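Lab notebook, bench 4. Still working through the backlog of constructs that have no structural model yet. Next entry is a single chain of 122 residues. Request: give me the structure tokens for it.
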Amino acid sequence: MNLFFQFLLTVILGFVAQYFLPWWWVMAPVAFIVGLIFYSDQSFYPFLMGFFAGAILWWGMAYYLSTLNHDLLAGKMGRLFGDISPLGLEIVTGLLGGLIAGLGAMTANLGRRMLKKAAKEV
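Model written out:
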């Protein structure tokens, strides 16, 4: 249940933050903050929840922006990168967003674990 709340909070905060900050870099700090809140003993689960949240949010934003201009820019970019379809570019964008958010959440989790371990040694 804790993982679902991490996923949900990352999506909600990322969505809200996109209205005030540029959407292409806001996912890493949001996933980092949520990763600090939801601590896990394993690093894989925070990465996974951050990855899914970032991928869904970035894919959704790329799809929304692409449909606003009827895939004009995505079509031109796809031709530039070797005839990739607009949907292919949206999927790649989602995967990149997922990787960025997943690494942000995993970094927060590992940093918190390191600080916990350092506090025990003192």
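Notes after review: The chain has one domain: 2-20+28-121. The chain has five helices and no strands. Flag for follow-up if needed.
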